[in-house]
Amino acid sequence: MRWSKAFIPTLRDDPADAEAVSHKLLVRAGFVRQLMAGVYSLLPLALRVSTKISAIVREEMNRIGGQEFRLPAIHPAEIWERSGRWQTMGPEMFRFEDRRGSGIALGMTHEEIFAHLASELRSYKQLPQIWYQLQTKFRDEARPKSGVLRVREFTMKDSYSLDVDRAGLDRSFDLHFDAYRRIFKRCGFDAVAVEASSGAMGGSESIEFMLRSDAGEDWIASCAACGYAANLEKASSQIAPLECGQGPDAPEKFPTPGVRTIDDLAAFEGGAAAERQIKTLVYQVDGKPVLVLLRGDHSLVEQKLVDQVEAQEIRAASAEEIRELLGASPGSLGAVGVGERFVIADEALRGCSDMTTGANEDDFHLRGVAIERDIDVKAWLDLREVRDGEGCPGCSAPLSVHKTIEVGHIFKLGTRYSEALGANVLDEGQASRPIVMGSYGIGIERTLAGVVEANHDESGIIWPVNVAPFEVVVSVLKPKDVKNLETGEHIYDALVGAGIDAILDDRDERPGVKFKDADLIGIPYRVTVGPKGIKNGTVELKRRRDGELSELPIERAAETIVEAVLDERR
């Protein structure tokens, strides 16, 4: 490839709306262009990278016995209705009707479709199976942002394991876990495996693979001492119990005019510090009101509530529903004397006494509340958000809480989809049993952006050799000089002949422009061919990652570069 013929539209300035490093650099370096919110065109450089990432994914999936499919992106509503997800997936699913009035969805994932195909299996002897595809997915993101990190159209490797029992699922899950580790390592970064919520996918267990980055929207808690790591939607921690006083024999009501928040009550004369307050939230769970209690200085992780309460629909109650239920506005709510109302409390409140909470009357609170004496708690759950510095649940060392990008997610689905779609096999005893499934996803463009987030400097991207759009650029400083151009072409041809992915920069541009473009794009090796070097019988080799320079004899330049590139590929 000659640079003079390539479409590589580099820019001098960052896009005005870009915040993530990967967004800035992928636009500036001519990899992507936005068509509309959350929808990007991959230009030739990006396609070269995504093709290499996809090849790594295929190699590792085939290594664990995967078979590649290509399934439709357009799905009939009926198959999603059978699993119940047509009703539960929400506005993220693109839906429309065809000319016959039939409901259609653009596939955002393919559990139903693979389970439908698995219904053709008949015997346990045909299991296990690992099926996968690289396919376009569609999600109507409410807030597409950060370039290709959060988009509405993207490529995903989604795979599905089919086993006869839970032990088989465990083996398939472990195979994928190890494959994902290898994939991300080969792409150029280490991903942290964390415990995660399964969310709308369902199932008994899931693990996310996370890349630490300020561009991320997922927060994880991790322990450097023992290796514990979990998404905040799943994380737990150790905290010191409150030193609770005995308090009065019964709650005492007192006026709190104008007090509407935890902070208001903490500042109110005769009030209580945030950790001495009981925060009362009201949720509608399958149409029934539920009171959720936390310490005043703690925050609810709603996904923890969703994961631990078996329900089809959970939502925060409206102000009108709250007043009808408890007779007061938010800020004056409590669970003392609420009769048979279902009350859930966070574990951090267990054993607390001499606490303060709302009196279910505007402008009044109750002090001296002993939660297990005065409140009928029906369930104790871990609902609070973990904070930086709290104790690790495994070893008590301080936890670190930081932002990450999710680059992969693996799920133990169980039999949810096989039961819904009729995917059953006969076991050894000739009894019919549903296939036990797992689901495993990697976003290709998100991985591409993750590589950039993990590999860049002030000059641009630093691509690892395995996924670089080009491994070597041969920069000819005087392309109009016959000797210069011939020398550059000779080295370029030798590199290509040896299987190296090279580009010849034959543009009639200043050396500084060529060097800046090569650094911005992130090509791992640059060979500079110039009049001074040719006079001395040498060319200059620069390694992008650390800037290391070396002079190479022209006659051995290609051979030396090939050795360097092949060594990095391994």
CATH architecture verdict of the largest domain: 2-Layer Sandwich
* Percentage of residues in DSSP E strands: 25-35%
CATH class of the largest domain: Alpha Beta
Residue-averaged pLDDT: 94
Query: Separation of termini?
Result: 24 Å
Catalogue the unreliable spans: none
Q: What can be said about the biggest beta sheet? A: 9 strands, mixed
Helix and strand content put the structural class at alpha+beta
Could you please say which CATH topology of the largest domain applies here?
BirA Bifunctional Protein, domain 2
Evaluate the radius of gyration. Answer: 29 Å
Walk me through what this model shows.
- With 570 residues, the protein is α+β, with helices and mostly antiparallel strands.
- It has three domains: 16-72 and 109-235 and 401-453, BirA Bifunctional Protein, domain 2 (2-Layer Sandwich), CATH 3.30.930.10; 252-381, YbaK/aminoacyl-tRNA synthetase-associated domain (YbaK protein); 470-569, Rossmann fold (3-Layer(aba) Sandwich), CATH 3.40.50.800.
- The strands form eight sheets. Strands 3, 7, 8, 9, 10, 11, 12, 21 and 24 form a nine-stranded mixed beta sheet that branches. Strands 16-14-15-17-20 form a five-stranded mixed beta sheet, covered by helices on one side. The chain has a five-stranded mixed beta sheet with strand order 28-27-29-30-31, sandwiched between helices.
- The chain is globular, with a radius of gyration of 29 Å.
- The mean pLDDT is 94.
